[in-house]
Amino acid sequence: MIKIGIDYYPEQWDRALWEEDAVRMRALGAHVIRIGEFAWSRMEPKDGEFDFAWLDDAIETISRQGMQVILGTPANCVPLWLYQNHPDTVQWGRDGKPTGLGLRGHRCMVSPTFRQYAGRIVEEMAKRYAGRPEIFAWQLDNELESNHCTCPACRAAFREWLREKYGTLEALNRAWGNVVWSGEVSDWEQIQPLLSPDCLPRWHNPAYLLDYERFGADCTADFVRFQSEIIRRYNANAVITTNACIPANIPDFHKEFALKNQTQSDGFAYWTQLRLFHEACIGLGVNVDVVHEDAALDGYQVVLVPTHFVTNPGLASRLEDFARSGGTVVITNRSGVQDKNGNCILGQELPTVFRNLCGCHVTEYDPIGPVKQTVNLTKGGTYQITSWCDLLELDTAQVWARYQERFYSGVPAIAKNCFGEGVAYYVGTVGEKAMYRTLLMEAFREQNIPLLETLPQGVESTTRSGDGGTYQFFFNNTLHGQNFQLQGERVHLRPLEMKIRTEKAVWV
């Protein structure tokens, strides 16, 4: 059974409305209601004085309508009494000063004092609610991001994190390339996780910045584990989740960190290319998994590698094995630029470790920013491009698209290389959505992957399978109605409507 969920904040509404709201939510088809993640001041109005009676009533009201609760731990929104009594719980900004308190998210996840109080409220909740049938799952915090605090506790923690990673200052200096601009560190206390507002990130050591982002991600992951372990002490089988903005320490995000720290051109972003590929896939009804770069590739037919800026050499050899055995790989511009420490890979032409697989190399590049240009496909068709232009020279690959403008008109922009039993594409630019649809249609057809080519622009489809069966979701992401044919059936989607179809072709 597919469970539909809704956010609700009973602490923000008159209690007389709760029952009516619950009835309406159930009538809408909701099964689970998320509550609690912003209500710490109501749960603990004063230090050590807890009030869960209102939360009990809210859960009971929801339960009476046959729905369950996703209970959020409230560590994102700290009560003002805690900040007042313990200033060391306040997050410090990148300017090295305490953050001006606003509405949410201004706590330091590393602060021992904050951990003490956050752990206490989570434990009080777990003692009271863990294992109850009304609780479907727990959500930890809300919209977690990397911890960018620069308070004294975080400075000490950052240095300790670096000690554990590198062991010695000599190893750190080598990894960071600190000989440049006399940046060699001779004492751990010289390391400051700090960016002053008048000094933009591009002027800082990129290896240092990347490690600082990794440290922040690790702090957030540790804070998630901290809360999770408390809940599991009271219910080992509890379903626990969160809604992170940036997962912890996933390499598909080290690229994002590095590219934000060193902007490649105006408008160039890792997320842009990630979304273009993702939208092209689900616009053709092809499911997408986002996997760790060390994940096994067995069972996949196509692997997409957008902007692999911070490079894992081991991935290159595994992608070669994957393609050699019949798989298709798609790699894009700015891949193979930096090593794992964030330093440029020297002595090799881009895309460095991926050159053998891609069958081409970059002789020059043009960071065109917001300028619009076009490419011609060798099989016909013209598409608009922007942001970046790699000028490619072919080793063993064939041309898939050529540039039309500027001094490099006619130069290959996209290459296709036969590799063993498989294929590798190298995309040297950033194109419009339709270009990625065309490219992936070719790649998917070569792998005999079923496509929904009748879906109109703005309609997406994904499929989910489980013990309850297989369900196909259709989303209309436009503000106008959409029509299309599906296995001989005419389907209509209203603006922003979603429909679900079972494996037996029944709409639910």
Walk me through the topology.
Layout: E1 5-7, H1 18-27, E2 32-35, H2 40-43, H3 53-64, E3 68-72, H4 80-85, H5 112-129, E4 135-139, H6 152-166, H7 169-176, H8 206-234, E5 240-241, H9 251-261, H10 270-282, E6 302-305, H11 313-324, E7 328-332, H12 355-358, E8 360-377, E9 382-394, E10 398-403, E11 412-419, E12 422-427, E13 429-431, H13 433-446, E14 459-466, E15 469-476, E16 482-486, E17 489-493, E18 498-502
Parallel strand pairs: 1-2, 2-3, 3-4, 4-5, 6-7, 7-12
Antiparallel strand pairs: 8-9, 8-10, 9-13, 10-11, 11-12, 14-15, 15-18, 16-17
Helix pairs in contact: 5-8, 8-9, 10-13
Tell me what you see in this structure.
This protein is 31% helix and 22% strand. By secondary structure, the protein is of the alpha/beta class. The strands form four sheets. The chain has an eight-stranded mixed beta sheet with strand order 6-7-12-11-10-8-9-13, with helices on both faces. Helix 1 links the parallel strand 1 (5-7) and strand 2. Helix 5 (112-129) runs parallel beside helix 8, helix 8 runs antiparallel to helix 9 and helix 10 (270-282) crosses helix 13. The longest helix has 29 residues, at 206-234.
